[in-house]
């Protein structure tokens, strides 16, 4: 038995003995998986939610202090009395065919990487494989509203086979046990997953952390990643842009983005820095308090898609997908992302790929087209008048339509895929 195979076996045993409250078996090739969370864990979580002690807010609420206490009390009450995990679990299992496998290391990360993923093939012979990567605080839930449109389109529109993995530490992909597995390595593992599934050329879509992941993939696997579609493009203004801004010589679009980034730094950067500095310290309370965890996630969801009407059911279900295995791994991904050698700082320009941007105009992700062109071969660029950061959830129809237009006979992306 090879050493690597042995370590995979050991890991499979570890994954079970690590005491996750869900049934999972990570073998060396794709095997079917259904979400099956221990009912006693679900009941214990409900009881914890019902006993949550809510912080006392100021009489005059200050938004930047955190979400209003009354909203968190509403989450607590709903969780204690109305929330039904069984329905969410059944809906996800019925709608999303899921699998597990193990990848034998990626890039500089030499340990086995157990992965959970959604895979649904289109019945169309001409369907194009599409790797969909979720973000934070997301999970495979993000693919739920677009998977039908991708796999089962009208007969004259482009069809896709969809593969949507859980990033390590999110949903049912166990968090790494060693440092060094960041988004770049996750992308390398996802490429190996695509090869396990027999897809040696494919297109990618991602938003939020998923957009960074698929960009790494386009850089690292230019032969296989034939086109990239995204609703977020990380691109900070350069010195000339800032000089222009300070000299009031920016376009309205440039000034908009620079102002949004400045607001982001004031309101959200603290959250990021907790993850980058002391994610474990943060995780002790978050692992033990479902309502506290939901309060954190609520802020992310509301901040990203403020005009979307997030229901209590949605907030709790998105929380559960991180809370069930524990939110440490998902938070710690940001620490890897801040690493100088393989984090955001290592994103380089790629020119051989076809990139598309689909940016809802009100979202943080709005970007002037010529700035975007500095880092990629943009062949398709759209601004939408509505929608938010979680595009596959708040604007699923527009997202699917945009992807179909981006890659259809006659487009540059189509030609890049077919060749
Ligand atoms: C709190 O609840 C109110 C009333 O439902 C809602 O309008 C507001 O957006 C919520 N705020 C947050 C941060 O969730
Ligand atoms: C959910 O399903 C489990 C196992 O089937 C069951 O024990 C539990 O009572 C169910 N909970 C609810 C709220 O229906
Ligand atoms: C491994 O790390 C080195 C040094 O940081 C880097 O140059 C190299 O690209 C990495 N390899 C992969 C496959 O990520
Ligand atoms: C497919 O057909 C619909 C309805 O006739 C039409 O609106 C749409 O533009 C067509 N799509 C393509 C790619 O030709
Ligand atoms: C104004 O911005 C343009 C575009 O970046 C630049 O070429 C030009 O030098 C700037 N003019 C001044 C006065 O800064």
UniProtKB/TrEMBL annotation:
BP term (GO), one: epoxide metabolic process
UniProt GO MF annotations: epoxide hydrolase activity
InterPro entries listed in its UniProt record: AB_hydrolase_fold, Epox_hydrolase-like, Epoxide_hydro_N, Epoxide_hydrolase
This protein's name: Epoxide hydrolase N-terminal domain-containing protein
Signal peptide annotation: 1-18
Organism from which the protein derives: Trichoderma harzianum CBS 226.95
Keywords: Aromatic hydrocarbons catabolism, Hydrolase, Signal
A Pfam family recorded for this sequence: EHN
Domain Epoxide hydrolase N-terminal intervals: 31-143
Source superkingdom: Eukaryota
The family this protein is said to belong to: Belongs to the peptidase S33 family.
Active site: 208 (nucleophile), 334 (proton donor), 389 (proton acceptor)
TM ranges: none
Classification via Gene3D superfamilies: alpha/beta hydrolase
Keyword hit for Hydrolase: yes
Keyword Disulfide bond: no
